[in-house]
Amino acid sequence: ADADADADAGSLPDAPQKSGVVYLGDYVDPMLRWYDITGDHPEASGELDVGASIHDLAVDSVNHILAAAIDTERHVRLFRLDDPAGGVDAPAALSTIELAEAPYLVQLDPYHARLYIHTATTDGGKVYIADVSDPANPSILNEVSTPIFGSWSLDPVRRIVFLFNGIDTTLEVYDVGDDTMTMLSGAPIDLA
Protein backbone atom coordinates (compact mmCIF):
# COMPACT_ATOMS: atom_id res chain seq x y z
CA ALA A 1 0.00 0.00 0.00
CA ASP A 2 1.17 3.51 -0.75
CA ALA A 3 1.41 5.36 2.57
CA ASP A 4 0.84 8.72 0.85
CA ALA A 5 -2.47 7.50 -0.63
CA ASP A 6 -3.95 6.24 2.66
CA ALA A 7 -6.94 8.31 3.76
CA ASP A 8 -6.43 7.44 7.44
CA ALA A 9 -3.21 9.26 8.31
CA GLY A 10 -1.14 7.56 10.99
CA SER A 11 -2.29 3.98 10.42
CA LEU A 12 -0.30 1.15 8.91
CA PRO A 13 -1.56 -1.17 6.19
CA ASP A 14 -2.29 -4.79 7.08
CA ALA A 15 0.73 -7.02 7.29
CA PRO A 16 1.25 -9.15 4.18
CA GLN A 17 0.43 -12.86 4.35
CA LYS A 18 3.37 -14.74 5.81
CA SER A 19 4.36 -18.18 4.67
CA GLY A 20 7.40 -20.35 4.55
CA VAL A 21 9.78 -22.35 6.68
CA VAL A 22 12.72 -21.32 8.84
CA TYR A 23 15.58 -23.78 9.48
CA LEU A 24 17.74 -23.71 12.60
CA GLY A 25 20.86 -25.53 13.66
CA ASP A 26 22.30 -25.45 17.14
CA TYR A 27 25.95 -25.63 18.06
CA VAL A 28 25.21 -27.60 21.25
CA ASP A 29 23.27 -30.52 19.76
CA PRO A 30 23.14 -32.42 16.45
CA MET A 31 19.60 -31.43 15.46
CA LEU A 32 18.49 -29.57 12.36
CA ARG A 33 15.07 -28.10 13.21
CA TRP A 34 12.45 -26.45 11.04
CA TYR A 35 9.43 -24.33 11.80
CA ASP A 36 6.42 -23.46 9.66
CA ILE A 37 6.11 -19.67 9.78
CA THR A 38 2.81 -19.48 7.90
CA GLY A 39 0.23 -17.60 9.93
CA ASP A 40 0.54 -15.67 13.15
CA HIS A 41 2.79 -18.01 15.15
CA PRO A 42 5.69 -20.26 14.14
CA GLU A 43 5.00 -23.96 14.62
CA ALA A 44 7.63 -26.65 15.16
CA SER A 45 7.42 -28.91 12.12
CA GLY A 46 10.24 -31.36 12.56
CA GLU A 47 13.82 -32.16 13.39
CA LEU A 48 16.57 -34.29 11.92
CA ASP A 49 19.61 -35.68 13.74
CA VAL A 50 22.60 -34.89 11.51
CA GLY A 51 25.07 -36.63 13.81
CA ALA A 52 27.08 -33.61 14.98
CA SER A 53 26.47 -29.99 15.89
CA ILE A 54 25.85 -27.48 13.11
CA HIS A 55 28.07 -24.40 13.10
CA ASP A 56 26.25 -22.49 10.34
CA LEU A 57 23.42 -22.87 7.83
CA ALA A 58 22.67 -21.27 4.47
CA VAL A 59 19.40 -21.58 2.57
CA ASP A 60 18.89 -21.15 -1.16
CA SER A 61 15.14 -20.58 -1.36
CA VAL A 62 15.25 -20.29 -5.17
CA ASN A 63 16.66 -23.78 -5.80
CA HIS A 64 15.45 -25.29 -2.49
CA ILE A 65 18.88 -26.23 -1.11
CA LEU A 66 20.21 -26.03 2.45
CA ALA A 67 23.93 -26.16 3.33
CA ALA A 68 24.95 -27.16 6.87
CA ALA A 69 28.53 -26.54 8.07
CA ILE A 70 29.41 -29.35 10.46
CA ASP A 71 32.78 -28.28 11.79
CA THR A 72 33.56 -31.20 14.12
CA GLU A 73 33.16 -33.63 11.19
CA ARG A 74 35.01 -31.34 8.73
CA HIS A 75 32.31 -31.32 6.11
CA VAL A 76 29.34 -29.47 4.67
CA ARG A 77 26.12 -31.37 4.02
CA LEU A 78 23.69 -30.38 1.30
CA PHE A 79 19.96 -31.05 1.64
CA ARG A 80 17.02 -30.70 -0.75
CA LEU A 81 14.26 -28.60 0.79
CA ASP A 82 10.58 -29.20 0.20
CA ASP A 83 8.29 -26.54 -1.20
CA PRO A 84 6.17 -25.68 1.86
CA ALA A 85 3.08 -24.97 -0.26
CA GLY A 86 2.09 -28.63 -0.03
CA GLY A 87 3.04 -29.10 3.63
CA VAL A 88 6.39 -29.12 5.38
CA ASP A 89 8.44 -32.27 4.81
CA ALA A 90 11.86 -33.20 6.17
CA PRO A 91 14.93 -32.04 4.22
CA ALA A 92 16.40 -34.84 2.06
CA ALA A 93 20.15 -35.47 2.26
CA LEU A 94 21.82 -34.94 -1.12
CA SER A 95 25.58 -34.95 -0.61
CA THR A 96 28.52 -34.27 1.67
CA ILE A 97 31.52 -32.10 0.83
CA GLU A 98 34.55 -33.36 2.77
CA LEU A 99 37.17 -30.77 3.74
CA ALA A 100 40.68 -30.82 5.21
CA GLU A 101 39.73 -28.09 7.69
CA ALA A 102 36.67 -27.39 9.81
CA PRO A 103 34.01 -25.34 8.01
CA TYR A 104 32.63 -22.49 10.08
CA LEU A 105 30.58 -20.32 7.71
CA VAL A 106 28.61 -21.01 4.53
CA GLN A 107 26.90 -18.83 1.91
CA LEU A 108 24.79 -19.98 -1.06
CA ASP A 109 24.44 -18.05 -4.32
CA PRO A 110 21.06 -19.06 -5.78
CA TYR A 111 21.62 -17.37 -9.15
CA HIS A 112 24.99 -18.88 -10.06
CA ALA A 113 24.77 -22.22 -8.20
CA ARG A 114 27.75 -21.53 -5.96
CA LEU A 115 28.48 -22.45 -2.36
CA TYR A 116 31.11 -20.48 -0.44
CA ILE A 117 32.66 -22.23 2.57
CA HIS A 118 34.92 -20.52 5.13
CA THR A 119 37.35 -22.74 7.03
CA ALA A 120 39.99 -21.79 9.55
CA THR A 121 43.01 -23.26 11.28
CA THR A 122 45.75 -21.67 13.38
CA ASP A 123 47.59 -21.01 10.07
CA GLY A 124 44.80 -18.85 8.63
CA GLY A 125 41.54 -19.01 6.78
CA LYS A 126 40.37 -20.35 3.45
CA VAL A 127 37.33 -19.93 1.28
CA TYR A 128 36.29 -22.87 -0.85
CA ILE A 129 34.14 -22.10 -3.88
CA ALA A 130 31.94 -25.04 -4.92
CA ASP A 131 29.69 -25.59 -7.91
CA VAL A 132 26.32 -26.83 -6.64
CA SER A 133 24.42 -26.80 -9.94
CA ASP A 134 24.01 -30.53 -9.31
CA PRO A 135 23.75 -30.53 -5.49
CA ALA A 136 23.89 -34.33 -5.39
CA ASN A 137 27.38 -34.08 -6.97
CA PRO A 138 28.97 -30.78 -5.91
CA SER A 139 32.52 -29.96 -6.99
CA ILE A 140 35.14 -27.68 -5.47
CA LEU A 141 36.18 -25.11 -8.09
CA ASN A 142 38.72 -23.14 -6.09
CA GLU A 143 40.38 -22.81 -2.70
CA VAL A 144 41.56 -19.33 -1.71
CA SER A 145 43.64 -18.31 1.32
CA THR A 146 41.99 -15.55 3.37
CA PRO A 147 42.34 -14.05 6.81
CA ILE A 148 40.33 -15.72 9.55
CA PHE A 149 37.03 -13.87 9.83
CA GLY A 150 33.77 -14.23 11.70
CA SER A 151 31.43 -12.13 9.61
CA TRP A 152 30.75 -12.00 5.89
CA SER A 153 28.06 -11.27 3.38
CA LEU A 154 27.43 -12.25 -0.22
CA ASP A 155 25.87 -10.04 -2.88
CA PRO A 156 24.89 -12.79 -5.34
CA VAL A 157 23.66 -10.44 -8.06
CA ARG A 158 26.96 -8.56 -8.34
CA ARG A 159 28.94 -11.66 -7.25
CA ILE A 160 30.78 -9.82 -4.50
CA VAL A 161 31.82 -11.14 -1.08
CA PHE A 162 32.32 -8.74 1.82
CA LEU A 163 34.25 -9.97 4.84
CA PHE A 164 35.22 -8.32 8.09
CA ASN A 165 38.90 -8.69 8.94
CA GLY A 166 38.96 -8.20 12.71
CA ILE A 167 42.76 -8.36 12.96
CA ASP A 168 43.28 -5.38 10.65
CA THR A 169 39.82 -3.84 11.36
CA THR A 170 39.04 -3.66 7.65
CA LEU A 171 36.23 -4.57 5.30
CA GLU A 172 37.61 -6.72 2.50
CA VAL A 173 35.65 -6.70 -0.76
CA TYR A 174 36.14 -9.49 -3.30
CA ASP A 175 34.90 -10.15 -6.82
CA VAL A 176 33.97 -13.85 -7.03
CA GLY A 177 32.49 -13.71 -10.53
CA ASP A 178 35.21 -15.83 -12.10
CA ASP A 179 35.25 -18.34 -9.20
CA THR A 180 38.28 -16.68 -7.63
CA MET A 181 38.45 -14.04 -4.91
CA THR A 182 39.91 -10.91 -6.46
CA MET A 183 40.20 -7.93 -4.11
CA LEU A 184 38.36 -4.97 -5.62
CA SER A 185 40.05 -1.63 -6.20
CA GLY A 186 39.77 0.55 -3.09
CA ALA A 187 39.63 -2.44 -0.76
CA PRO A 188 40.36 -3.25 1.96
CA ILE A 189 38.40 -0.43 3.56
CA ASP A 190 39.82 0.78 6.87
CA LEU A 191 37.16 0.64 9.58
CA ALA A 192 39.31 1.87 12.47
Polypeptide structure, described:
By secondary structure, the chain is an all-beta fold. 0% of the residues lie in helices and 48% in strands. The termini are far apart.
User: Largest sheet at a glance?
Assistant: 5 strands, antiparallel
Annotation, overall tally of beta strands? 16
Counted by DSSP, the helix tally is: 0
Mean pLDDT: 89
Per the principal axes of the C-alpha atoms, what is the gross shape?
Answer: globular
Structural class: mainly beta
Tell me what portion of residues adopts beta-strand conformation: over 45%
Please give the radius of gyration in angstroms. Answer: 19 Å
Cα distance, first to last residue?
Answer: 41 Å
Q: Which sequence of SSEs, written as H and E, runs from N to C? A: EEEEEEEEEEEEEEEE
Helix content bin: under 10%
Could you give the topology of this structure?
Elements (H helix, E strand, L loop, with lengths): L20 E5 L5 E6 L6 E7 L6 E5 L4 E6 L4 E6 L11 E7 L4 E7 L4 E8 L2 E8 L7 E8 L5 E4 L4 E6 L4 E6 L6 E2 L5 E2 L2
Antiparallel strand pairs: 1-2, 2-3, 4-5, 5-6, 6-7, 8-9, 9-10, 10-11, 12-13, 13-14, 14-15, 14-16
